[in-house]
Design goal:
Shape: globular
Order of helices and strands: EHEE
Structural class: alpha/beta
Radius of gyration: 11 Å
Strand content: 25-35%
Strand order of the largest sheet: 1-2-3
Distance between the termini: 12 Å
Number of helices: 1
């Protein structure tokens, strides 16, 4: 399953990403500052942006 997760740099968001990756899902992590995330995984794509700006996600 493909999942977009917002708020990944927070305590709950990072746990959601970790568990989803362990379950084999493909994750797009949407966050303002990608350098805050130390996780690297073939199924993880970091997307830098601001939820208040209207854009199209590349999924």
């Amino acid at each position: 399953m493909r999942i977009v997760v917002f708020g990944v740099s927070g305590r709950m968001g990072i746990k959601v990403v970790e568990q989803a990756l362990e379950a084999g899902h493909i994750i797009t992590a949407f966050l303002r500052t990608p350098s805050k995330i130390a996780i690297q995984h073939p199924n993880l794509t970091l997307f830098q942006g601001d939820v208040l700006v209207n854009i199209a996600l590349p999924i």
